[in-house]
Amino acid sequence: MSDSSSDSVSVDVETIYLGGKEHIIRTDCGSVSVLVYGDQEKPALITYPDLALNHNSCFQGLFFCPEAASLLLHNFCIYHISPPGHEVCELASLFCFIKSLEFLQLGAAAICSENPVPSVDDLTDQIVEVLNYFGLGAVMCMGVIAGAYILSLFAIKHRERVLGLILVSPLCRAPSWTEWFYNKVMSNLLYFYGMCGVLKEFLLHRYFSKEVRGSPDVPESDIVQACRRLLDERQSMNIWRFLQAIDGRPDITDGLKTIKCRTLIFVGDDSPFHSEALHITAKLDRRFSALVEVQVCGSMVTEEQPHAMLIPMEYFLMGYGLYRPNQFSGSPRSPLTPSCIAPELLSPESMGLKLKPIKTQIAQK
Predict the structure, then answer these.
(1) 3-state DSSP: the chain helix, strand, coil percent, rounded to 5?
(2) Which end of the chain offers a freer environment for a tag, N or C, measured as fewer CB atoms within 10 Å?
(3) pLDDT tens digits for range 9-37
(4) Closest CA to 209 of 316, 87, 305
(5) pLDDT tens digit string along 66-116?
(6) pTM for this structure?
(7) How far from 198 is each of 62, 166, 188, 330, 333, CA to CA, in Å?
């Protein structure tokens, strides 16, 4: 990365957990915020969140899990890419603990209405420009729902730039009639009413299972309450623009057959996109893909049940020769001893794991 780029600016950011640096990178499709955590000499892991979220509201649960943080930060430098207008704030961020991992943050500035609405292809082209800015070659990718679609499309268009995919409740087909209807309702709510109560309920249903969303007799969980507050910080028209891109996405099923990198898919049993994850798994090369279905969980496994991701990710990354530091190997939630896992699961063609409350589909040789 050049220290004196005329078309980008980087800003130091203090976080509550790790030191990071925010880079505002100007691209052909507008500016994009990238938060960088860790040693940039290490291999790169890029993340991309879902609609109306950013790295804090989409990946915080996973990275606040000590075992997952040790696994990922020991092996990677993390590059959190935010969709345009979804960053924590325009040039800086404010974090503050409130009870259990809740925080306040400043919202991003509204994108000028005269700027054209990007397509999903524009967003994948932005990723290329981000990688080029940092001088990155092939990277590991982790995306959630819409972010998983963007990274899957990126892997199809730029296979040489992707080491592997970790997809959470991914999309790949064009919107179904049901999703199309939901998207149109959300689009109208965003355009005319902003981040209103009804829209929040639509989004929370998209993200979380009914168990954590609560009921008249059961209160919402802390993560749902925190997400509800964070949605208030979002600029409604910025969300509307990303929603237009995702709603206009093409079917990339045929392109999935060209993906040759290893792919690990997580999906909650209660996710509205559960059938999409099954469809994607059926189309990918079975030798290099695995599906982990997490019971009693919605779409955002990274927030609702991040510990369910740990062991599958460990064995997925072992295929790349990547391991956690030894001091964490004794964790009861994340055993690494051969007696815990059948040895055949360490083979490159088999990356699933049977462990309640996780159901998995293991690729067959």
Answers:
(1) 40, 20, 45
(2) C
(3) 444 433 333 468 899 999 998 889 999 99
(4) 305
(5) 999 899 999 999 999 999 988 775 333 333 333 333 434 445 677 776 778
(6) 0.84
(7) 28, 31, 11, 45, 38
